[in-house]
Design brief:
The structure holds 2 protein chains of 2 kinds. Chain A is mainly alpha-helical. Chain A folds into 2 domains: 57-194, no CATH class; 214-439, MetI-like (MetI-like fold, Orthogonal Bundle), CATH 1.10.3720.10. Chain A has helices at 13-51, 68-71, 79-82, 87-105, 113-117, 122-134, 151-157, 163-167, 174-185, 196-199, 214-245, 250-263, 267-281, 289-313, 317-325, 330-358, 362-366, 394-402, 407-439; strands spanning 56-65, 142-148, 189-193, 380-381, 385-386. Chain B is globular, with a radius of gyration of 18 Å. Classes of the chains: A mainly alpha, B alpha/beta.
Chain lengths: 442, 253
């Protein structure tokens, strides 16, 4: 072989080709990252533009005279008796109050009184009735209160409804929007931040403006509690046993493979399993966070076991040797030395598993958590037991709202997605922070 | 020769189908330093790990034969390896302090064996162990800083302190100086020489000079068998076996 001496200042062919290949690869990489970033941006922008408005709501400040003749005929101010007047009895009171207020403000309208009354949300009647029943002495006075306006008027102030679309809409009219605009100019109608979106329960198809995530958030919270309480100890105990104590043989290999397979089982299968075992066989209440939590526990266990085993594997053998070498028992070496070192990994795995469970929809549909629930579920009650009262969950609420006809619910669904994403982000940040905190020990 | 501290007869070790050690018989005397030398993979570490049953932790490892410490069979069904390891301490090739403070590293063994009655007692045990390991003067002002923050040589001496804190009778050392520089090695060798007063030390080493410097007895392993065992002086000056001679003169290994 001859030694060719070539100037370092001239690149030979091979070098040029290699450099070109590297440049191409870098370009592919940048493209890939760009596509991911673009997809994420489009997703976030769409969700936020559609959903941010769900956190704001339009209210009308009404002065409502509460006539005794209609609301408390007996004059006893006894809530039990007054409860005989249903929301139907309150509707004319609110309608009359609005018509009167329009007249007082000098706003002329071509709408009939009935159509004017429709501008107030159907939810408002119940709000006023609840107020009156809670405080009977209000009867005979004038109640000044902020009430929800009807969904399309609300949509108008958020830009979802225009004069043109209102003209084609049987549920509202340009005239109504005109009145609403005049009221807004006078400061009677205002759009402001809406806590009720996060606290109120779901509402019926006619009243998207009143629908909230309260029950869904509670349901999700209860389920996460069940998952955390069951899946973390069971998962960690199983992984420690499998990783540190079982001998490596056919049986342990079989178990390992099956746990990995379990992690890949479609979530809806867990739903069927939950339906068959927890509801039909064990007799737990359907739609209850307990059953939801149990199903999600089954689903989360493989995730926790796999990540915990990985975390345990990552602890160097030398630490186990050191502990055994000074005469620690197997269990002492695991609990005193291996587990603390694996803790950050275990925590991260657990939180990722929880986040997965929080976003899971399909199995919950099968166990009836898709029901329409207006009542806040209690943690415990005597007949239903712990976490036994019907509830929904955040992702199911999203699914539910996207199925409804009223466009107001599309906005709500996007708002719910934002809420869900915020919760997921919080959990992931918690995972990162916990990890840092535990790793910083040394 | 006095009564042997450790007596191994016809020890075989198998990893699955591979034979790692065959038919090794050694008597190790008390208060001596015994060095195991031989090329890599010859089974000297494996044999060392038999002496405190560390091989139990490896599933596929099978040990047969007879090993007695003070005349007691360590493979007897009534022997708990935990008690055995308290009696036979071990220092590993790579310094492996726990990711805890220097104090906690040394105190861990005495704590789990219940050797200290109270905090003052424990502090004394820790100080003693660190003094014996020639580390006390360097760390006495930072006992509560992490053990992993020490230099390599200090970490290894910390591991030695940790091993002697449980007051073992035998100290096994698996190439304790292989990761250290000559100065740290010198300190550890001096230390081993001092430790001989109280312990029976068995050391695996790749350095023949080291074996010659610190040991009274030397065993030469080759391909899983014990080739020659005798006084260090004799092994290094007039070995009986041609393989030993080739190894110590650098022709094989």
């Amino acid at each position: 072989m001859t030694l060719r001496t070539q100037s370092l200042l001239v690149r030979d062919d091979r070098t040029r080709r290699r450099n070109a290949a590297e440049r191409r690869f870098r370009t592919y990489g940048r493209c890939a990252v760009g596509i991911v970033a673009l997809a994420l941006t489009v997703l976030l922008v769409t969700v936020v533009t559609n959903g941010a408005s769900a956190f704001r709501q339009t209210f009308i400040t009404l002065n409502i005279p509460l006539p005794e003749a209609k609301l408390d005929k007996t004059g006893t101010r006894n809530p039990a008796v007054m409860a005989k007047v249903t929301t139907l009895g309150y509707a004319p009171v609110l309608r009359d109050a609005l018509v009167q207020q329009l007249a007082d403000l000098g706003i002329k309208t071509a709408l009939s009184d009935k159509e004017t009354g429709k501008m107030i949300s159907k939810e408002a009647v119940a709000t006023v009735r609840d107020q009156v029943l809670a405080n009977p002495d209000l009867v005979g006075t004038i109640l000044t209160i902020d009430l929800l306006v009807e969904g399309r008027i609300d949509g108008y102030f958020k830009g979802r409804v225009t004069m043109e679309s209102a003209a084609l809409d049987g549920n509202t009219s340009p005239d109504a929007l005109q009145i609403a605009q005049s009221l807004a100019d006078l400061g009677v109608i205002k759009t402001r931040f809406n806590w009720r979106f996060l606290t109120a329960p779901d509402a019926s198809d006619q009243r998207p403006e009143a629908a909230g995530l309260g029950v869904a958030i509670l349901g999700s919270l209860y389920m996460m509690t069940v998952v955390l309480v069951l899946a973390l100890p069971i998962g960690v105990a199983a992984s420690i046993y499998l990783e540190e104590f079982t001998p490596k043989n056919r049986l342990s290999d079989l178990i390992e493979v099956n746990i990995s397979n379990l992690a890949a089982v479609p979530s809806i299968v867990f739903g069927i399993l939950g339906l068959a075992i927890f509801i039909n066989f064990a007799g737990f209440k359907q739609s209850s966070p307990l059953v939801g939590g149990l199903v999600l526990t089954l689903m989360t266990l493989p995730t926790i076991i796999i990540s915990t085993r990985a975390a345990l594997k990552a602890v160097p053998m030398s630490i186990r040797d050191a502990a055994l070498g000074v005469g620690a028992s197997k269990m002492q070496s695991v609990f005193h030395h291996v587990l603390p070192l694996a803790a950050p990994g275990i925590l991260t795995g657990t939180i990722i598993g929880l986040a997965q469970a929080l976003g899971e929809t399909a199995p919950l549909l099968l166990i009836g958590m898709v029901a329409f629930v207006r009542e806040y579920p209690a943690v415990y009650n005597d007949t239903a037991g712990l976490f036994g009262e019907a509830a929904t969950a955040l992702p199911v609420q999203v699914f539910n709202w996207t199925q409804r006809a009223d466009p107001g619910f599309a906005e709500r669904a996007s708002g719910a997605i934002i809420t869900l994403l915020v919760f997921l982000a919080i959990m992931n940040i918690a995972a990162v922070l916990l990890r840092r905190r535990f790793e910083r020990r040394w | 020769m006095t009564h042997p501290k450790i007596s191994a007869q016809n020890v075989d070790v198998r990893y699955g189908d591979t034979v790692a050690i065959k038919d090794v018989s050694v008597d190790i005397a008390p208060n001596t330093v015994t060095a195991f030398i031989g090329p890599s993979g010859c089974g000297k570490s494996t044999f060392l790990r038999c002496l405190n049953r560390m091989n139990d932790t490896i599933d596929i490892c099978q040990v047969t034969g007879d090993i007695r410490i003070d005349g007691e069979d360590i493979f007897d069904r009534n022997v708990d390896p935990v008690q055995l390891r308290a009696k036979v301490g071990m220092v590993f090739q790579k310094p492996n302090p726990f990711p805890k403070s220097i104090f906690d590293n040394v105190a861990y063994g005495p704590k789990i064996h219940g050797l200290a009655r109270n905090k003052v007692d424990m502090a004394k045990i820790v100080e003693n162990a660190l003094r014996k390991a020639a580390l006390w003067s360097e760390v006495k002002d930072r006992l509560h800083s992490p053990g992993t923050g020490l230099s390599g040589g200090q970490q290894q001496r910390l591991c030695i302190a940790r091993a002697i804190a449980t007051a073992p009778e035998v100290l096994l050392m698996d190439e304790p100086c292989s990761a250290l520089d000559p100065i740290a090695t010198g300190q550890i060798e001096e230390l081993i020489n001092d430790l001989r007063q109280n312990f029976c030390v068995v050391i695996v080493t790749h350095s023949m000079q080291q074996a010659a410097r610190i040991s009274q007895k030397t065993a030469f392993f080759h391909l899983g068998s014990l080739v020659e065992y005798g006084d260090t002086d004799q092994i290094f000056t007039m070995p009986n076996d041609p393989r030993t001679e080739s190894y110590i003169t650098g022709r094989i290994g």
